[in-house]
Design brief:
homodimer; FAD/NAD(P)-binding domain; 3 domains; alpha/beta; 454 residues; five-stranded parallel β-sheet
Chain lengths: 454, 454
């Protein structure tokens, strides 16, 4: 009999897993279940859909279900909610949402790609008709529709993380006056202070009001269920639109029901082969924790890149191959209006928390040769292990060439290089692209002197 | 007595060596001799001075002699030509060009940074009043002056290498109709064929006529010594201005006079400490050959980055420290109008020549997320050692994000990674900056499949 490989969840990890499993074992019956309408969507781009950079939501759908079936040989069942995993019988209880009936299905191998859920405030009004989250194409379209129909003038964004920043830019592009309400004094907790200050400055420069140290206490809504003001610990903000970007958490309802082990961050724990604690059940993507190879601790970092990679590995192993996902360093970037901002590796806080002795090196330099078009000041804050001088993490920010340098620093972190070793990298110099001493080399040279001074 | 460290040559390597030597041994008497007017100049930017991107020649002078003396504590003697090195006596014969007299001076340590010279055609007319090279700020200013005074309409560039490309763009910016005369069928011999074709296409798109397989036979000049046509093996080209960009060769007259060993490329041979074959004599920069660590052969690659680094190492060692320059991979980039082009590592030809068995992998993909501003098609041609799958070299070209990817590939070459290892790099994904699968990962994934197919 043909082996049956079942994938639960169709956003990023699921389609990767399904396609890979089928490619490796064309004999297998590979079935992908998805509770919603779409599979294989790019939800990272949703803020850009709202802002009009991406003109059409269809561009965020990489495959329709029928295209995916045809091209990848995977059976796709949308509007199907997997309600229960029964590991002892290797079977699933599945609800066909369009027909309203439930059935069971057997699996040989199962891959859970159940993704994440938006955090909620648990405050009345947060599901008001002008309150949105940024978690799916459907919500992106709903925001767009609301903007077009009601032409709101003011928007409040609750939550000053990555998505909050991108949504601020999107709403400003759509002509709204934007206020960000955030718990901490500065936006973007994961970053170093200098980077966070630069973000706050960039928001201000673009007319966005950042209200730090503010907790949402309640919403005031009119009779139609439209929120008219957000009431915070530091005063009331009148608004025509609310975006909740409070972060996400792993969706593990299904996994927990099957007694699959979860970790510190409440995400599914897997080994390097993406196998869970339960026989024949793999997991990948936003429902999982990921090992951070810099300090060898698990982290919860729901990024599309990790989802795709873990999905491939899980799918390959479900189909009988032996592949591994060894972990990640954290490599991410965000654009906040004209400010580019990237983080690689671990933060100073994480390093200290995990018992590492670190020092912080900061530089500011040109991104290209002085006077050349596009040249701009570039900042690097590097977290360095004191004794070994090993690079553990970096924030890079500025208006030009940020991600390029962050990727080189991320590479150095993965290769466990010291700052001193950075200084001997052979990096490109050409006036239109880089200064004679690339920022990475300037950072390396700084460490070299530092060592000499000791 | 104070040790006396003498540096010969003041462009890039010389000032680096001098400043470093003085910093390491503040007691030393460090003297820098330069035959010309300026020291510490950025000659890479000269085409951009001609094209008007850099508005003022003074921006290319990083230090005036007196600033350098004040800031670095180095004695600077411009208009002083070192005519002879006498290693047995540890002395130099020096001509003071402004006073017209010669004197001798003793050294304890000597650093030769005599740079390179422009290749010549050895054809009458090549020193005509409208014929220029691109080797110094003075020449850059002279070209600019000629353009302003005589408003030439047509220009011929002889030589289709890096400088030829940059000068073509500069002259087009200044409104000239430009023809490039070049010996080979395609420009830029060091690159792979696809990259060279892209350059030729970009020249055409910008109205530059590229005449390949053409040798210059003679110049026709009028009575004032102004060249009016360039006569080639494939016909005559009328012109108002001629740029000779035939490449450079190491300036080793002084070294050879002292019986210092030169290598395959006629450049000074040094060890890792930049010490020449002669006791107490170091060398750095364009007068030297450099070890290419990819195939462990020497190469001649006169780049400002290597000059600065070798200068620092030579200066440090002349002052008593033990530092090394371990070699380079070759990392360079050029902008040809809107085309960005980078080369890291060795070419297919070099690999074959040095007995390596290689295969070539080529990919074409997006530089950013599809549909995002700035996104453009990016090309990578990778040279891979067949058995080990180790990356040996790459050409990257396109209109966006080229140097960023080339630096990551160059890093991988330095770390001796295989293509398969590239695939597990943790690189940044964010729609405004990169696609979900960065071009480097796409290349890596390709190799992975390749291995599987065997």
């Amino acid at each position: 009999m043909k082996p049956r490989i079942i994938i639960v969840g169709g956003t990023a990890a699921g389609p990767s897993a399904a396609a890979k499993a089928k490619r490796i074992n064309p004999n297998a019956e590979v079935v992908l279940y998805e509770a919603g309408e779409h599979i294989s969507t790019g939800i990272c781009e949703v803020p850009y859909l709202v802002g009009g950079v991406v003109p059409d939501a269809d561009e965020l759908i990489h495959f329709t279900p029928s295209m995916f079936e045809k091209k990848k040989g995977v059976m796709v069942r949308t509007y199907h909610l997997v309600e229960e995993v029964q590991p002892s019988r290797k079977s699933l209880v599945i609800r066909d949402l369009s027909k309203g009936r439930t059935f069971t299905e057997r699996y040989d191998k199962l891959v859970l790609c159940t993704g994440s859920k938006s955090r909620r405030l648990e405050i009345p009004g947060e599901d008001g008709r002008n309150v949105f989250r940024v978690k799916s194409i459907e919500e992106g379209k709903a925001i767009g529709k609301y903007l077009s129909e009601f032409a709101p003038r003011r928007g409040v964004i609750v939550g000053g993380g990555y998505i909050g920043m991108e949504m601020a830019e999107a709403l400003v592009r759509r002509g709204l006056h934007v206020t960000i309400v955030h718990g901490d004094e500065r936006p973007m907790e994961g970053l170093e202070r200098a980077a966070r200050d630069a973000v706050r400055e960039e928001l201000k420069r673009n007319g966005v009001e950042f209200r730090g140290r503010s907790e949402v206490r309640s919403f005031t809504a009119d009779s139609s269920g439209t929120v008219t003001s957000v009431n915070t610990s530091r005063g009331m903000v009148e608004t025509d639109l609310v975006i909740l970007s409070l972060g996400v958490y792993p969706n593990t309802t299904l996994a927990k029901g099957a007694r699959i082990r979860v970790g510190t961050f409440d995400g599914i724990v897997t080994d390097e082969r993406q196998l869970t604690s339960v026989d024949s059940v793999y997991a990948a993507g936003d429902c999982c924790e990921t090992k951070n190879v810099v300090h060898n601790r698990s982290m919860y970092l729901p990024l599309a890149t990790y989802a795709s990679r873990q999905g491939r590995v899980a799918g390959a192993n479900a189909a009988g191959r032996k592949e591994v996902f060894k972990g990640a360093i954290r490599a991410m970037a965000v654009k906040v209006f004209e400010l580019e901002l990237a983080q690689v590796g671990i933060s100073e806080g994480e390093a200290v928390e995990s018992g590492l002795h670190v020092e912080v090196e900061a530089i500011e330099c040109d991104s290209r040769a002085s006077g050349f078009p596009g040249n701009s000041r570039l900042h690097v804050v590097a977290i360095v292990e004191r004794r070994s001088q090993r690079l553990l993490g970096a924030n890079v920010f500025g208006r030009d060439g940020v991600v390029a340098r962050a990727n080189v620093l991320g590479f150095a972190i993965q290769q466990r290089l010291s700052l001193r070793e950075l200084a001997s990298l052979d990096l490109i110099y050409a006036p239109p692209f880089a200064p004679l001493w690339d920022p990475v080399l300037i950072l390396g040279n700084k460490a070299r002197r530092g060592l000499h001074d000791i």
